[in-house]
Write a structure and sequence with these properties.
The chain is an alpha+beta fold and 174 residues long. 20% of the residues lie in helices and 29% in strands. A three-stranded antiparallel beta sheet has the order 1-3-2. The protein has a two-stranded antiparallel sheet with strand order 4-5.
Length: 174
Amino acid sequence: PGGIVAFITSKGTLDKQRDSVRREIEKRGTFLGAIRLPGGSQGAFKANAGTDVTTDILFVRKRIDGEPTNFNAEWQGLQEIKTPEGPTSINGYFATHPEMMLGKMRLLGTMHGKNEPVLIGPATGLDAKIVEAAEKGLPENAMLDRGSTAAALNEDVDTAAGGSIKEGSFYEKD
C-alpha cells in the first residue's frame, strides 16, 4: 500500500464506454495521471511490435487503508472533444489535460473501423517527452511512506480464470 505502479495499456482501458475496468482500478488504487502515446502508422509501438494502437501509461498509487475512493473523478468518465474530422469521446482526464497526450487526437480508418480515434504524433524522442510530461503533469510527493498504512491489504484471488491471474492483479469477467 502506498507504492506506485505504472503500466501500459491500450487506450481502450480509459476510453471505453463501459467503466468496469476503471472502477476496478479505482477500488485498488488512486489514479495519479496518465500519458497517452502516439498510435497510427508512425506510433510508439509500430517499429518494435508492429502495432498501430494508441497506448496509455497509467500511474496509480496502491490504495492505503481508509483512503476514500472517487468513482466520480474525471478519469472515470468520457468527454467529447473536437478533432479535424469531427467530434469523438475520450477519457475525461485527457479531455481536460491535453498536454498529457503526446500528439493530437484524430479520427482515422483502422482495422477496427473507419472513424476510430487515434493519437497522431511523432514517435521520435518519446523517452524525453514521457519524462517531461510526467514531471509537469503528475503530482509531486505521490509516493507514500510504508508507515502510511496500518496493515497490508489482504486480497482474495479469483481462480475463475484457471489460476492464471496472479495475486494483486485483476481481470474483467464478462
